[in-house]
Each structure stands twice: as C-alpha cells, then as structure tokens.
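WARN no homologs supplied; continuing
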Amino acid sequence: MSNLTFLLNNTLKNIPEFCQSHWLLRIPLAVIFIQQGLMKLPLDIAEAESYGLSYLTWWVVAYGELGSGLGLIVGGLLNIKLLEKLQILGDLITRFSGFTIGCITTGVIWIGEPESLIDIILYDNLHVLLWVGGLFFALRGSKA
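OK structure emitted
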C-alpha cells in the first residue's frame, strides 16, 4: 500500500500545474453573458413587458449581462504579473462581475417560477451552472 501511495504522490508531483485554468471557465461564462446582453440591444419596452419586467429592470439586466461578461475578461487580464499594481483592481472587477452574474441568474430562475428547489436543480441545469460560475468568481475573484 505504501508503494502505491509513493507512486501516486510522485506521479502527481510530476504533473505540471496549469495556473491559467480559470480561463477555461472565465471565457465561456463571459461569452454567454456578453451574447445575452447584446441580444437585448437595442432595448425594447415591449420585450421587457413580455417577461413581466419594467423597462428599467430590462435596462439593468441587458447592461449588467454585457458589463459582467466584459468584466470577467478585463478582470482576468488585469491579473497578469506584468500589471502587478492593477491586480487588486482586476480582483475587484472579477468579484463584482461574478456577483452580478449571480444576481441576474437568480432573477432569471425566479422569473421562471419554479415549483421547488429540486425542479431548479433537475430541470434548469444551464441556469444553475451559470449561477455557480458567477458565485465561483464572486467568492474567489482573480485568485481562482
């Protein structure tokens, strides 16, 4: 058993760490939110009303989606070592973008009027994944 543990530990130590892996989550999440924000432009009050939302809420959602997607990209770019003095700003932008993603996704789930939490988890997988992705960046920031 100890030989197997030794072998596994040595193998794991030799696998290089990919410290930029946050981009594998950051880019698709940003693309989805940028795309959703752009699809709402130009803003139309009739479209907002079709979802039972006011024009102001629709405006906040559209620009929130666009801004949070762009914020995830900008926050990640400001985290590079060459921009050491801007890393804290990149972290704040990433956290705020993740929080915004979580809020917007919560609203989308809420508008769907699900019957229970189980219905959300079982049948609304995309929004659950978007919500968890936003929560991840809100909690971890650019230290992901």
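The chain has a mean pLDDT of 92.
OK
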